[in-house]
Structure formats: C-alpha cells, structure tokens
C-alpha cells in the first residue's frame, strides 16, 4: 500500500455544501427583493417631495405662502396706530443731528427729519423749565392727539421722554401753516381751496368735540395751528393746551388764560366763568373771518384807529351788503355765494353766549351748503358791556332774544332744505 490513502467523501460534506449554496440563493433573492422595494420606496418619497416643493397651480392659493407676511403687515399697522417711544439717539439719527429747522417758539424748536423707510417727520423738542410747563404740554399732546386718528388732525407718530429731553414726533406737512398763505400779498392759494381748508378744519374740530370717547377741547384754534400737506389738505395741530373732559361734564373750570389773544373766547376774560368746548367754536369763527378777508382781523390804521374785520363784517351784513364786502376782499363772483355763507357762519360762531354758538357738526353742514343758514344775531356785546352778566344780556337784547340756546334745537342755526324745496320756495316767493 502506498503512503497516500484515498477515502471517498462523506455524505455530511455534501449536505453542508448544498446548504451553503441554498443559503446564498435565498440571500440573493432577499437582496433582489429588498433592492426592488427600496427603489419603489425611494421613488415614492421623491414623488412626494417634488409635489411638496412644486409651484402651486395658478388658481390655487397657498395659505402658508401669503398668511405670514399678510399677518405681519397687519400687526405692524396695529402697532403704528399708537405713538411709539423713541430714544434720544434715534431722534438724533432721524434728524441728521438736528440740521434742518422748521420753526421755533416759546415751546422750543421744530426740526425736519426722516424715518429709515423714507417717511418725513417733524420733531418738536420742548424747552424744559422749572415751572414744568414743558411737561404739561408734553402730557397734553400725547394724552389727547396720541389717542385719536382723523384725516384732519396731524398724526403723532411718537415721542421721546427721558431726564434730558421731551420731544414729539409728528408727520411732516410740506406746505406749513395756514397763516403764511392768508397774510401774504402773493395770494398763492385760490379762494375755493381756502373754502375747502375751512371745511376740513371744521371737521377736525368736530371730531375732537363730538366723536372721541372723551371730548377734547383744543383751546388754541388759529391759522398758525392749521397745517397743510402737499395738496393743501388741512390738519389741526398743536395740542399743547388741549384738555380731555367727560361728555357728562358740560363745563370745565380752567385756571388762567388759555389760547391766543384775538382768537380766545370772551369767557376767558371773566373770573371763574365756566369754560366749555364752545370756546373752540369762537376761535374757529375768528379764523373764518381771516380766511374771508385774507388779512389779520385787527389792523391799526394810519390814524391809529383799530380796523377790526369781524365788526366790519357784522355792519355790512346788517346793511344787507355782504356781497359788496366780498368784492372789496377780492373774492371772485363764482365764490361770492360761499363767501357770504361763510360770513354768516362766522357771525354765528362768535356769539357772546357759548350756548348760542353752533356745535362744530352744525358748522360743517352750514359751510358745505347743504342747509340754509339762519340769520345770525348781533355778536360782540361784550365789547360794550362790563360785568359777569354780559352773556345773559347778550341773549336778552337785540335780535338774539328770539333764539333758543339749546344745542338740541339745531334750527336756531340752520334750516334743513333740499334742492326741490329750495326751488319751490323761490317760485312761491316770486309769485
């Protein structure tokens, strides 16, 4: 026998080999199935992702795409309804270190500025004083105009208050104040535009008196406090003397003189006399006279005599010669009917008795021409009378005794009429 022995393979080895082959086959099948499944899953995921990021059809509104910026804009607009508190550093930046002055007065200085988004502003920096007048003015303006919004009131964007500075940030109005156009020889603004300015100013004051939750009395209505935008649209400004009052309180006790001489109501001259919102009506009447005459109400003539336009207007009205007065004022024929109506409204506004003056909502209606203005009684009795009963005398003398004094009886100032009725009344009168 050789040194090499040969033994045939055993059955166990064959079985092991077959098992290995079978396992490999099974694993291959599983791998193929897994690969097919994975490809299907991947394809499904890709399809889903493509659908998610694909642009929506033209007629489909994706809420998530528009809702966020829309709501953000809405919240920003809500925030802008209230005055914003700025820092002194921000105001310095907005005004380029206070380089452009718009005006000045006893209250302080007004500077031109601009927000980072390009909106122009006017920054009023108040003078600080030991008697705390600046603080009182600051609180009056923020506390009144800061809680209102009307197209005929200047917009208060915000304020700055710290240990060094009290400042107010307003919208910027390109054409400045009304007085520089009324008292200028150039007469840049046509009379029709002045009439619109008068109506808009009246609407702003009516809002303060009759539409705010708490009535606001301005106390200083005059041409210098009516600002004009680029289109000469009017906005009442300067609420440094304004006060809030509850509607149930018809009178206010005011300490000291308020307003500007020449525009302030006569009740301020009487000691401890109750003051109402009708003091603004009187001041507005004085403003109307200056619009009609395009001049200051009081002028000293060459002989040192006082030429007072409101008294002259009454005298011309009493003679039935308002038309001639409007001609003398340089008002063109197309505007004379409105000028005569404005003169009558002004005479109603400056009545001695506050109760005899119309509310500002009635003033608006009369100026707009939708009603017939009733003949006004004689004003200015206080110029010739002395004593605390002057206003009672004004109601008991002259033509005014035939009129009621309640605001609720609006027919004392005007009569409702329609074009058809007006035409009928003319026909009846001429027949």
UniProtKB/TrEMBL annotation:
Give the way it sits in the membrane.
Single-pass membrane protein
**Claim: tRNA-binding is one of the keywords in the record:** no
Which residues does ATP bind? Answer: 124
Q: Which UniProt keywords apply?
A: ATP-binding, Kinase, Membrane, Nucleotide-binding, Serine/threonine-protein kinase, Signal, Transferase, Transmembrane, Transmembrane helix
**Bilayer-spanning residue ranges:** 15-38
GO cellular-component terms in the record? membrane
Q: Example GO molecular function term?
A: protein serine/threonine kinase activity
Q: Which Pfam families match?
A: PK_Tyr_Ser-Thr
Where is this gene product found?
Answer: Membrane
UniProt key word Nucleotide-binding: yes
* Superkingdom, natural source: Eukaryota
Ranges for the Protein kinase domain?
A: 96-384
**PANTHER family from the entry?**
OS07G0415500 PROTEIN, RECEPTOR-LIKE SERINE_THREONINE-PROTEIN KINASE
The text of the family note is: Belongs to the protein kinase superfamily.
What protein does this entry describe? Protein kinase domain-containing protein
């Amino acid at each position: 026998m050789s040194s090499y022995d040969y033994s045939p393979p055993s059955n166990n080895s064959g079985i092991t080999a077959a098992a290995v082959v079978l396992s490999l086959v099974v694993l291959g099948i599983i791998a193929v199935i897994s690969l097919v499944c994975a490809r299907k899953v991947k394809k499904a995921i890709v399809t889903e992702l493509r659908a998610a990021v694909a642009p929506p059809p033209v007629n489909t509104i994706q809420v998530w795409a528009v809702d966020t910026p829309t709501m953000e804009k809405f919240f920003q607009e809500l925030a802008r309804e209230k005055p914003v508190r700025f820092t002194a550093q921000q105001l310095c930046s907005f005004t380029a270190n206070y380089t452009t002055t718009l005006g000045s007065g006893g209250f302080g200085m007004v500077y031109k500025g601009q927000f980072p988004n390009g909106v122009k502003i006017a920054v009023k920096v108040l003078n600080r004083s030991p008697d705390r007048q600046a603080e009182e003015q600051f609180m009056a303006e923020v506390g009144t105009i800061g809680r209102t919004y009307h197209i005929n009131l200047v917009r208060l964007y915000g304020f700055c208050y710290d240990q060094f500075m009290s400042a107010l940030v307003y919208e910027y109005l390109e054409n400045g104040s009304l007085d520089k156009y009324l008292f200028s020889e150039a007469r840049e603004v046509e009379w029709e535009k002045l009439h619109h300015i008068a109506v808009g100013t009246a609407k702003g004051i009516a809002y303060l008196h009759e539409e705010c939750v708490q009535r606001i009395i301005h106390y200083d209505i005059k041409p210098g406090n009516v600002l004009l935008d680029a289109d000469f649209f009017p906005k009442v400004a300067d609420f440094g003397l304004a006060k809030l009052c509850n509607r149930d309180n018809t009178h206010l006790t005011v300490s000291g003189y308020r307003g500007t001489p020449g525009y302030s109501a006569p009740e301020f001259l009487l000691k401890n006399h109750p003051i109402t919102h009708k003091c603004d009506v009187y001041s507005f009447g004085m403003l109307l006279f200056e619009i009609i005459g395009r001049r200051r109400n009081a002028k000293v003539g060459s002989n040192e005599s006082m030429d007072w336009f409101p008294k002259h207007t009454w005298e011309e009205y009493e003679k039935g010669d308002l038309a001639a007065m409007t001609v003398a004022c340089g008002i063109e024929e197309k505007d004379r009917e409105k000028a005569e109506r404005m003169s009558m409204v002004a005479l109603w506004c400056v009545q001695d008795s506050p109760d005899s003056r119309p509310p500002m909502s009635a003033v608006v209606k009369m100026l707009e021409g939708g009603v017939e203005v009733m003949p006004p009684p004689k004003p200015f009795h206080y110029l010739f009378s002395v004593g605390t009963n002057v206003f009672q005398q004004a109601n008991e003398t002259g033509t005014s005794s035939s009129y009621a004094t309640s605001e609720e009886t609006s027919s004392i100032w005007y009569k409702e009429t329609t074009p058809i009725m007006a035409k009928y009344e003319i026909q009846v009168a001429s027949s």
